[in-house]
Amino acid sequence: MSVSGSPTTPITDRSTSLMDNLLGLLRIRVKKGVNLAVRDVRSSDPYVVVKMGRQKLKTRVIKKDVNPEWNEDLTLSITDPSLPIKLTVYDHDTFSKDDKMGDAEFDIKTYIEALKMNLAELPSGTIISKVQPSRNNCLAEESTIHWADGKVVQDICLRLRNVECGEVEIQLQWIDLPGSRGL
User: Fold this and answer.
1) For the chain, is the Cβ count within 10 Å smaller at the N or the C terminus?
2) Tell me, what's the pLDDT at 6?
3) What is the mean pLDDT of the chain?
4) Is residue 5 part of a domain?
5) What is the enclosing helix (H) or strand (E) of 21?
6) Which residues belong to any copy of the C2 domain (predicted)?
7) pLDDT of 176
8) DSSP code of 37?
9) Is a pLDDT exceeding 50 seen at residue 13?
10) Residue 41, domain CATH
11) Is 17 a member of any domain?
């Protein structure tokens, strides 16, 4: 008897179980950083790491910029939408360990609820839902979930924790995957 995911399990068994559990993909567009902390002499070389469960993705490094514009898409496989997503900003250093420049956490529960609504007839730009900043989230301002060009999109501005200053702007978009369980 082999344990799923062990070296003795055939690869087809693993991929079948992943597709059975996969709800879809979440595209996180990491747009930009605003007023990030200085970690080098006069600036920083920031990059973003996004983690959810065992998944870990990162953006490219932008040299000497505390207001970087990444406009980079990172895609997570979603099997459990109740898991929080953690975003951490680091300063890339060539000769030493990269410095942490703050972190933030957000959940996608409200976004997933909006995805489950039947919204096909809505005009583009319609606001579906709003999430208010609170002590229980890292929102810097109200986050809107809206209908744009046939898709449910959420714009989020996260205030970084464990640092003196900085915000990161991201956008969420869902990708349905043929063969996945779906929502």
Assistant:
1) N
2) 45
3) 89
4) no
5) helix 11-21
6) 7-121
7) 87
8) P
9) no
10) 2.60.40.150
11) no
